[in-house]
Amino acid sequence: MKTLLLKKSINTDEAQSMFTILREILPWKEGIKSRKGFTRLACPINTGDIPLIDQMLVSVAKSAGITINNALGIYVNYYKNGEMWTPNHSHKESNQIVISLGGTRTLNVGTKSYKMSNGDAIIFGHGIHGVPKESHITEGRISIAAFFEN
User: Fold this and answer.
1) What CA–CA distance (Å, rounded) separates 142 from 45?
2) pLDDT value at residue 21
3) φ, ψ at 46 (rounded to 5°)
4) Which domain holds residue 64?
5) Does residue 54 fall inside a structural domain?
6) Do residues 87 and 133 touch, judged by C-beta distance below 8 A?
7) Of 97, 84, 98, 76, nearest in space to 139 by CA
8) What is the pLDDT of residues 73-121, one digit of tens each?
9) Vertex 129, ends 33 and 20: CA angle to 5°?
10) Residue 30 counted as domain residue
11) In a domain, 34, yes or no
């Protein structure tokens, strides 16, 4: 699947509101650990757990002209600041939609870097991706990563 960046796919006010809600209501736990230790906070959820997330994902997919077949799950990441990160990795069996809420962070997909701002979304295949540390960033960011077959 070709990478598709959708700037402002979610209304800025709606995205900021969802950031605040998710930051407060989800039971955050330490995310997947790497060889370098703690990376970020995270919370796996299922389709249907938070209808507003489902609606955002359907809206993003529709604006990209795709249909999400066989949703495989949703993983919500919370980066309190630029010291939190995600190591480079891939999900060989799925495609992804990632919706960014809150502060701007870099998302590396393959050899390209994307500045993901509040309300932006990106759709990509099973390429290597990650969020590097950016020590100068003090704002929080939440990413909603939905995995699907297409």
Assistant:
1) 14
2) 97
3) -105, 155
4) 4-22+40-134+141-149
5) yes
6) no
7) 84
8) 899 999 999 999 999 999 888 899 999 999 999 999 999 999 999 999 9
9) 70
10) no
11) no
Task: Tally the domains of the chain.
Answer: 1
141-149 and 69-79 beta bridge pairing: antiparallel
Examine residue 31 and state whether it is found in any structural domain, yes or no: no
Task: Give me 149's structure tokens.
Answer: 């077959």
Q: Is 37 left (phi over 0), alpha (psi -120 to 50) or beta?
A: left
Amino acid letter for position 7: K
137: exposed, middle or buried (C-beta count within 10 Å: 0-12, 13-18, 19+)?
A: middle
Distance, in Å, from the CA atom of 124 to the CA atom of 149, rounded to the nearest integer, reads 11
| CATH number, domain containing residue 72 | 2.60.120.590
Q: Can you give the chain as a three-state secondary structure string?
A: CCCEEECCCCCHHHHHHHHHHHHHHCCCEECCCECCECCCEEEEECCCCCHHHHHHHHHHHHHHCCCCEEEEEEEEEEECCCCCCEEEECCCCCEEEEEEEECCEEEEECCEEEEECCCCEEEECCCCEEECCCCCCCCCEEEEEEEEEC
Cα–Cα dist 15/21, whole Å: 10
Taking each helix axis from N to C end, the angle separating 12-25 and 51-64, rounded to the nearest 10 degrees, works out to 140
